[in-house]
Amino acid sequence: MRPILKSNKLDDVCYEIRGPALERARTMEEEGQKIIKLNIGNLAVFGFDPPDEIVHDMIRNMHGAAGYTDSKGMFAPRKAVMHYTQSKNIAGVGIDDIYLGNGASELIVMAMQGLLNSGDEVLVPAPDYPLWTAAVSLAGGAPIHYVCDEGAGWLPDIDDMRRKITSNTRAIVVINPNNPTGALYPREVLLEILELARQHGLIVYADEIYDKTLYDGAEHVSLASLADDVLCVTLNGLSKNYRSCGYRAGWMVVSGEKRHAKDYIEGLNMLASMRLCANAPGQFAIQTALGGYQSIADLVGPGGRLLKQRDLAHKLLTDIPGVSCVKPKAALYMFPRLDPQMYPITDDQQFICELLSEEKVLLVQGTGFNWIAPDHFRLVFLPNSDDLTDACGRIARFLDGYRRRHGR
């Protein structure tokens, strides 16, 4: 029989956060081995529970969640999102500009499917959250990676971004706060990105899913709040700030200059209708979450668990010879660099698999985030302090052995 092959649309699609190393980890677990998983920001498995009022409201409203909703979402949660955009100083947003989705991930894919023709280009950061690169490729577009500068605190290199704009460029993706680096972009950088978009007639997609997960008193500026003459699409949701990953409750807000985008918006409406609606139970969580007590502040503020674990992980990693790391200002991750002179890695996926086999710690290699060299990895600092100390100790032991094996 002829082999049944996957679509060639998937040839350039990868998602290493759930890639081969995770498959190897599953096999090891089936053999009875215990793996410390630092590969994904899945808060619930590390004891970060959603606020009680969200859970209770979902349970209370479950009897009304069996039917389809409006294709863009229920009115009340969309209105709550509208009020949230107003609190972020994003002007001119009405109910019809808001789409609810099964997490921001669904909406990212939908936004790219509605925009791109074959050969269209989208500027995506390197490193990036790899779903953006995958979504562009799956939609038939070409992801063009602009470099974020580690020496400048992982801020986007505006000159590199400018050089990579061509006649085929349709949009710029901005991930702020950033996954995987934990960078938080200042107003000045956002204004420079908007000016590029203005000059070249580009859409700006702003992934702001970590906009409340901020450390050391940092403040987040929503990109769409800085321009009303550039088409901006802002994505957010409950997964991270409200520890509700599995609820799959996200939203997408279209703002700015919409008059010339009527056809694209019609396409988004078509795609929203085709999937019928986002899951109703998750929609019931949105209004309560946005209007309730913002308990994320307790986790990231002085004495908060996330702040303590960020500081602990950063110290433990940077105490390892040859490991440096820009301290995250936001989000749940850090993206350490391994000195290539001390760690001559040529295949960082193999490096991660060796670490997994020897020390039973699962990370994601830097090239899995479309970074340009095999000299970084991403670590999730969600485990409690004891487990985090154990994991970093295992990483340090592995790296010590790696240096010895390579005569460093």
From TrEMBL:
User: Which Pfam families does this chain map to?
Assistant: Aminotran_1_2 (PF00155)
Q: Identify the InterPro entries for this entry.
A: Ala_Aminotransferase, Aminotransferase_I/II_large, PyrdxlP-dep_Trfase, PyrdxlP-dep_Trfase_major, PyrdxlP-dep_Trfase_small
**Gene Ontology MF: a single term:** transaminase activity
Q: Does the keyword Ligase apply?
A: no
Please list the residue ranges annotated as the Aminotransferase class I/classII large domain. 34-395
Highest rank taxon of the organism: Bacteria
Q: Which cofactor does it need?
A: pyridoxal 5'-phosphate
Question: Which of the seven top EC classes does this enzyme belong to?
Answer: transferase
EC no. given is: 2.6.1.2
Stored PANTHER family: GLUTAMATE-PYRUVATE AMINOTRANSFERASE ALAA (PTHR43488)
Q: What is this protein called?
A: alanine transaminase
Organism of origin is: Massilia hydrophila
